[in-house]
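Methods, example record. To illustrate the input and output format used throughout this study, we show the complete record for Lysine transporter LysE. The sequence lines were provided to the predictor; the line carrying structure tokens was produced by it.
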Amino acid sequence: MTGIATVFLLTLLAAMLPGPDFAVVSRNALMSGRRAGIMTAAGIGLALLIHAGYAIAGVGVAVSQSIVLFNVLKWIGAAYLVFIGLSMIRHAKAARGTLVDADAALEPMAPMKALRWGFFTNVTNVKATFFTLSIYTQVATPETPLALQLAFGATTATTAFLWFTVVSLFFARPSVRRAFLALRVWMERIFGVVIAGFGITLAFARQPG
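The corresponding predicted structure is encoded as:
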């Protein structure tokens, strides 16, 4: 249980830091409502299961030791974030409806699209791969049973999902949405700049070690 608690605390602290995951969850919850935010959070959780699989299979170690593989993954992730950010800036538009009726201005977003946003934002982030690997190096050894290693991965994914669900519920509240609605065009552009900025930052990330 000590290992599970450690994984939970480390994942929660990392999830609470501002990053691309937080940006896409809060953006989708604000612009498209609670369901879109929760589905984005679910996508992030699924991506963390992939990262956990990397760690268990030793792929994370291979990435950390191969500068070519590291750079390939880094540039894919950076390109995706920049693409999403620029798309948000380009398609920013004024809200329909009134400030009183926040739901009238919801921007339709298919659940699977929200899921994909969350999944690809996280799964293409090489920093998330190394974060998951760093957790495993602290709580797991070659002698750690596979079932326990899988439990670590499930804990990471579940913790992130629950945290970002809380984030999405907050930003989807009518009172919160109402406060942002009048500035929707600028908020969409700001989120786009922030997400693209994370992509540019990722592009200049250095290989650990």
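Annotations derived from this record:
The radius of gyration is 18 Å.
The chain has one domain: 2-8+20-203.
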